[in-house]
Amino acid sequence: MIDLSDYPDEYLECRTAHAWKTSGWWLEQNRPRIYRKTYLCERCNMIRIDKADRNFNINTRRYIPPPKYKIEGGRVYRHTIIAAQITKDMVKNNE
Ligand SMILES: [Zn+2]
């Protein structure tokens, strides 16, 4: 299992759910009937950009991660994230 003991707590929390804030849908500049919704995570500063077409289908979703969010060393499984969260919380709760 990948060692996440040095991975920032806020990033670890965001690996299960971001704290998104958004200002809603806007018309894309110079693109008629293409809509854009930008989200900012208030905890880790991840940016998410959704674009919807004229039929209101979201056809692109892009993420711009904060520095060092990416975990090196292969695929990161959900149980690895949960295990790291539990380990950190158990240590914290016993201090
Ligand atoms: Zn986040």
Task: Describe what this molecule looks like in 3D.
With 95 residues, the protein is of the alpha+beta class. The protein has one domain (9-93). 23% of the residues lie in helices and 29% in strands. The protein has helices spanning 9-14, 78-93, and strands at 20-27, 35-41, 47-52, 58-64. It has a 4-stranded antiparallel β-sheet with strand order 1-2-3-4, with no helix packed on it. β2 (35-41) and β3 (47-52) form a beta hairpin. The site of zinc ion (ZN) has 7 residues, from loops.
Any key phrases for this structure?
single chain, 95 residues, alpha+beta, 4 strands, elongated, binds zinc ion
Task: Write a brief caption for the model.
The chain is α+β, with helices and mostly antiparallel strands and 95 residues long. The protein contains two helices and four strands; from the N terminus they run αββββα.
